[in-house]
Design brief:
By secondary structure, the protein is an alpha+beta fold. The chain has 8 helices and 10 strands. Strands 2-1-3-4 form a 4-stranded antiparallel β-sheet, covered by helices on one side. A hairpin with a 2-residue loop joins strand 8 and strand 9. Helix 5 packs parallel to helix 7.
């Protein structure tokens, strides 16, 4: 692996930690030695793509590292990083801790064969069952690794077919638009992006709300992503009107709460009015 650092600098709250770091060499084993607080961990975190430098560039094997959260996951998936503080799962052994990132990031092994039979107290899966190509094998593996009294918790897509999909989509859109506008964001753009991009997603539920949120925040979401180490080319949702920033998490949370409020009014308030004033 060839690592090239050029004029690398890093500051925290105006306090310089790294100044003018330059390095260019083929690396197999490299030790960075210095006093406590000298910036060793900061340097490694930058090279590992965990934090962005204040100035300067990082190249690995001739490819410049773009510190953009939309492209960083692919770079991070190509590396291994051992943290200074303990980052282990205490219910797993040494082998399982090492193998877990291989399974989650790279899909190796996909059948969880590194876990012995009846060793897991709890299995938690988030929207993985619906993505599994062989759901029978997925269930069999979960049953195999669970203890006799073990528990399986999962979140996934549920659709009540008694409600027509078109009606459900319209209710979601109205609630998201009202929520975005009430939270102080671009309700008009939420409607425009919803109409244009609401079907750009494999999930029947996700794109409608994601499109409205992207429009309200004037962001571009989705796009190509890595699943089990494989790059999947997916369409983008929304327009790239500004860079994504950490505060957008809080903004999306505000839209979520405002949307939930309006959804509560739509689903509970309207039937209540009908009952009170027939």
């Amino acid at each position: 692996m060839r690592i090239r650092l050029e004029h690398l600098e890093k500051e925290f709250d105006g306090v310089p930690v790294l100044r003018g770091i330059d390095f260019d060499d083929d690396v197999t084993t490299l030790a960075v030695i210095g006093p406590s607080g000298g910036g060793k961990s900061t340097l490694l975190r930058i090279v590992g793509g965990l934090i962005a430098p204040t100035a300067g560039t990082v190249e690995v094997d001739g490819e410049r590292v773009d510190f953009d959260e939309r492209t960083l996951p692919a770079y991070r998936a190509s590396l291994g990083f051992v943290f200074q503080a303990s980052g282990l799962f205490h219910h797993l052994g040494a082998l399982e801790n090492v193998a877990l990132p291989l399974s989650v990031v790279h899909g190796v092994p996909e059948d969880l064969s590194f876990l012995a039979d009846g060793t897991a107290d709890v299995v938690i899966s988030n929207c993985t069952f619906n993505l599994s190509p062989d759901k029978g094998a997925y269930i069999a593996e979960v049953k195999r690794i669970l203890k006799p009294q073990g528990e399986w918790y999962f979140t996934d897509v549920f659709t009540d077919r008694r409600i027509p999909q078109e009606t459900s989509d319209k209710v979601e859109n109205v609630a998201m638009r009202l929520g975005g506008a009430a939270a102080g964001y671009d309700g008009k753009n939420a409607w425009r992006i919803f109409r244009r991009d609401r079907k750009r997603h494999k999930s029947p539920n996700s794109a409608h709300t994601e499109a409205a949120c992207a429009g309200a925040l004037q962001l571009q979401l989705a796009g190509p992503n890595y699943y089990f180490g494989q790059l999947v080319d997916k369409p983008t949702i929304g327009d790239d009107q500004r860079p994504v920033e950490a505060l957008d998490i809080l903004r999306a949370g505000r839209i979520l709460y405002a949307t939930a409020f309006f959804a509560l009014l739509l689903f509970c308030g309207v039937p209540l009015l009908i009952l009170l004033f027939p």
